[in-house]
Amino acid sequence: MVATAVQAGDLTVSVRGANGRAVKDAVVTVHPASGVPRGPIRFAWPLRMDQRDIQFQPYVLIVPVGGTVSFPNLDRVRHQVYSFSRGNRFELPLYARGEAPSRTFGAVGVAALGCNIHDQMLAYIKVVDTPWAAKTDASGNLTLRGVPSGGATLRVWHPTLAGRGNEISQAITVGAGPASRTVTGDFSARAAVR
Fold it and tell me: Can you point out the beta strands (E) in the chain?
């Protein structure tokens, strides 16, 4: 067996709506044609969805498939968190401040979150099967580091993106070193972008 060195590059992505404005909290994933590494995927951010000020925080959380998310209640009121999303359905019984039940997400896709007590609470967990995943900042930008060079599929997901599964995809070629890509889509079909 001969080991071959695969060169990697950094991919900077800018996500813009059809109106040219930056899209915050868009999830960008890259699936190299060469495949993704075996083994568990780990991200630098905590796998937790807080309930604070009668809101979920963060609005969008990226979780690796098989990842366990904690749902700490930091409010003085009770919450009952649920998702009716296909493949990621669950319901956490009513729980109080200081409690932090958890849920393991075994299916790639999205879990749209709500609270049975507080209808205004809404957030999303995007479950992914690639270590090359990140969400855009307020400027609509992100950088994925160490993406293997060669062909790949870049996907962009956002809860308000028009299209099947709120996602669009593009075939890309990643070169060694820094590269940039701008993705534009219609993000205004269902609601205003947060």
Answer: 8-17, 27-32, 50-52, 55-57, 60-64, 67-70, 81-83, 90-91, 102-105, 109-115, 122-128, 133-135, 141-148, 150-157, 167-174, 177-185
Residues 167 and 8: their CA atoms lie apart, in Å, by: 25
Distance in angstroms (rounded) separating the CA atoms of residues 13 and 135:
10
Q: What is the pLDDT of residues 63-78, one digit of tens each?
A: 999 999 999 999 999 9
Going by the DSSP 8-state scheme, the letter that residue 166 receives in this structure is: G
* Mean of per-residue pLDDT scores for the chain: 88
Residue 62: strand pairing partners: 126
Query: Whole-angstrom distance between the N-terminal and C-terminal Cα of the chain?
Result: 50
Contacts of residue 5, defined as CB under 8 A and 6 or more positions apart, other chains included, come to none
Q: What is the pLDDT of residues 120-139, one digit of tens each?
A: 999 999 999 999 999 999 99
Taking the whole predicted model, whether its pTM rises above 0.85 is answered as yes
CA–CA dist 5, 14 (Å, integer): 29
